[in-house]
Amino acid sequence: MANLSDNSVTTTSHHAEADLQFMDVALSLARRGVGTTSPNPSVGCIIVQEGIVIGRGWTQPGGRPHAETMALAQAGVKSTKSTIYVTLEPCAHHGKTPPCAEALIQAGIKRCVIAIQDTDERVAGQGIKLLQDAGIGVSVGVRAEVAGEINSGFFKRISEGRPHFTLKTATSLDGKIATKAGESKWITGSQARSMGHALRARHDAILTGMGTVRADNPELTCRLPGMQDYNPIRIILDPLQNVSRETILIQTSKICPVWIITGPDVDSEYTETLESLGARVIHCEINSDGRINLIALAKMLGDEGLTRVLVEGGAEISASFLKARLIDELIWFRAPFVIGGDGLSAIAGVSLARLIDASRLKRTDILHLGEDVMERYLFKKREGEQ
Question: Between the chain's N and C termini, which has fewer beta carbons within 10 Å?
């Protein structure tokens, strides 16, 4: 990692206010790519000359071109002696494209303002060092917390080898997802459901279990006008190999990818039939209770390059991910009515005996959607957890 001394990497008071304003613009661009760039991060970039934005870009679907490449192409020769604002340290390694740090040097950039350093070992300060060695002024840490949250999945995959998992649920005020008879359509109103579709578009994959597949026969796509191409990979946990070939998910698997996660011992007919319909069958470790080992699954999904996975299952799936301490973020939609104690709870039992063992959350956002409310929570780490 490069030596980032206080003398070489600073944000001076002279630049402070403008840096914050321009970095906010770059961060807004970075958000556009979230859910479409894995395994790469979603980066935003603007180039500024005498207070005017002359180039902008964000990471394109699939991870390329990079944000810096897009912004430089738009700015052209005007980028000489300009200031560039980028939400993640420019890459320094040769991959399918040349390093962005070298492209900035060749473009004659005078100053580079970076929100957060890249923790990928192929970069990890080397992009900053390249810029400094070329005489470019570098400032790091402008809106770092926001930039880290935007690419939380990218950083999670690097640090823990797994994606960022978001649990989404929609319930009555008393935490029920269905009546005693199983009626669940619709708990929330149209605005909340639209927000749920937008949430899908911001994830690489959406994961559910066979209980939800059997009960709802869901499509699990983003059905918002103009966003039909932002569908995530759809993942079904099917340890007992019971998924029906007639479900919407399987029938549409050639249009939108479907991954079936099952055990190590798979019937060849099961695999051949599903794969002939367009699905992908993936083997995973099974626990003694016959369920998918979620820790092994998380690592496998990380190895597949996924950085953000939305868990949108039933009570058992939600409880299982919570017990495994894999949930990083909770999105909870609440409708203004009560179903009662005989309704189906959003989360099954987690065998909690002591309050001290309960997961602690921090509410970061609350949004009113018609009569419904959406709350966003981040899970707090326990003492001693990495």
Answer: C
Q: Which residues are catalytic?
A: 68
Answer whether 123's CB lies under 8 Å from 274's CB.
Answer: no
Q: What is the largest CA-CA distance in the chain?
A: 69
Say if residue 310 is exposed, middle or buried (CB neighbours under 10 Å; 0-12, 13-18, 19+). Answer: buried
Q: HEC states along 81-124?
A: CCEEEECCCCCCCCCCCCCHHHHHHHHCCCEEEECCCCCCCCCC
Per-residue pLDDT tens digits for 311-323? 998 889 999 999 9
Residue-level pLDDT at 385: 55
Instruction: Please give the structure tokens belonging to residue 186.
Output: 């619709």
- DSSP strand pairing (176-178 vs 344-345): antiparallel
- 45, 22 in Cβ contact below 8 A? no
Residue ranges with strand state E in the chain = 44-49, 52-58, 83-86, 111-114, 137-140, 164-171, 176-178, 205-209, 233-237, 258-262, 280-283, 308-311, 327-334, 344-345, 361-369, 372-379
Q: What is residue 199's predicted lDDT score, i.e. its pLDDT?
A: 93
Q: What is the pTM of this model?
A: 0.90
pLDDT value of position 96: 64
Report the distance separating Cα 290 and Cα 295, nearest Å.
14
The C-alpha atoms of residue 154 and residue 157 are separated, in whole angstroms, by: 5
**Lateral strand order in the sheet of 258-262:** 280-283, 258-262, 233-237, 205-209, 308-311, 164-171, 327-334, 372-379, 361-369
Residue 15: predicted pLDDT: 67
Q: Which of 196, 193, 191, 188 is nearest to 171 (CA)?
A: 188
CA distance 74 to 58: 12
123-174 confidence digits (pLDDT tens): 888 899 999 999 999 999 999 999 999 999 999 999 999 999 999 999 999 9
